[in-house]
Design brief:
By secondary structure, the protein is mainly α. The chain has twelve helices and four strands. It has a domain of about 220 residues: NCX, central ion-binding region (A middle domain of Talin 1, Up-down Bundle), CATH 1.20.1420. The chain is about 75% helix and about 0% strand. The strands form two sheets. It has a two-stranded antiparallel sheet with strand order 1-4.
């Protein structure tokens, strides 16, 4: 996404990440409403293509859809987080880089899983999911430790990327030894269509998210909403829109493995991959406020969803309402 790329033209804009947005009179409300609808359309068409391509790939490789959700889908939809965090670090705004990772992980669990389960309750007794939840918890605890250290340096970043590579290799190998793909998810595309669906779908997700963030921000300013509210809503969720669209589409199609794998894989990748790459490019300090409040909240949300998945065995609409309520309370508290 180009939220922070545009800031490169004027480093002083980093004090206000949204200051690239045009002054209220420069774009009409009608134009931005059209751009908003186009972004929404791209998100859901891209999500549909991406999910279908990912499930077809799972069948082609004889892998459970959970593994594809954890890797291709989960990592692919985290591309905006990677771009934003690296750009923020290069432009001297580490709080945005770290806050982007932590805030996205919290939104992935509370908002995205909440909306997905609200659309379609999900059975969570899926082969291999216990392993991945254990890795997610370990990674969240690692993030808490990094918060106390108050910096993520190049050595730590390299170690994090090494752990990510080891996890992906182990997950894929164990997935091949696990249960065969679900026969009910029988999507089989020719190779070229499969690749086009994955690449094209991901491209639509990224572009659609960018259109939606930019247009929503300008609309909000035109109707007089404060920049604080814009930042807490539009920008905070902006880089998680690909995950949101993909998981919602997967929920509509009853592909709970893809929806869950998307969130778990994205959260693991955000910490080990996004923060790891960012730290290698530019070591990032972690603000005390993030370390003592936002990271512990992310960890608490991770433990809570682990309990729901591993002990209760399903995510009901009641659970979804609780998750969404907690996220709403979090945003209100921040405001």
């Amino acid at each position: 996404m180009n939220i922070l790329v545009r800031c490169a033209w004027d480093p002083s804009n980093l004090a206000h990440p949204l200051s690239h947005v045009a002054e209220p009179g420069r774009a009409s409300l009608l134009f931005d409403a059209g751009l908003f609808l186009l972004g929404l359309l791209l998100l859901f068409i891209g999500g549909e293509l991406f999910v279908r391509g990912a499930v077809s790939l799972a069948n082609r490789l004889s892998l459970p859809p959970l593994i594809i959700g954890l890797t291709v889908v989960g990592f692919g939809t985290s591309t905006p987080e990677l771009l934003v965090s690296v750009e923020a670090a290069l432009l001297g705004s580490p709080d945005i880089a770290v806050g982007n990772v932590v805030g996205s992980n919290t939104a992935n669990i509370l908002l995205i899983l909440g909306l997905s389960a609200l659309i379609s309750p999900m059975a969570t007794r899926i082969a291999g999911l216990r392993r991945d939840i254990a890795v997610l918890i370990a990674v969240a605890v690692l993030m808490l430790g990094l918060g106390f250290l108050e910096v993520v340096g190049r050595i730590a970043g390299t170690a994090m990327l090494t752990l990510l590579a080891a996890y992906v290799i182990y997950a894929v190998l164990s997935g091949r030894r696990g249960q065969p793909p679900d026969a009910e998810m029988a999507i089989h595309m020719p190779g070229w269509r499969e690749a086009a669906a994955i690449v094209g779908g991901l491209s639509m997700l990224i572009v659609g998210a960018d259109f939606l963030v930019d247009s929503s921000t300008r609309i909000a300013r035109l109707i007089g909403v404060s920049e604080a509210v814009i930042g807490l809503t539009v920008v905070a969720v902006g880089t998680s829109l690909p995950e949101l669209a993909t998981s919602v589409i997967a929920a509509f199609r009853r592909h709970s493995e893809v929806a869950l794998g998307n969130v778990v894989g994205s959260n693991i990748f955000n910490i080990l991959g996004v923060l790891g790459v960012t730290a290698i490019v530019q070591p990032v300090p972690i603000a005390r406020q993030i370390a003592i409040f936002d990271i512990p909240l992310m960890l608490a949300a991770t433990f809570a969803i682990a309990v729901v998945i591993l002990i209760l065995g399903q995510m009901t609409r009641g659970t979804a309402v609780v998750l969404l309520g907690v996220y709403a309370g979090y945003v209100v508290f921040l405001f």
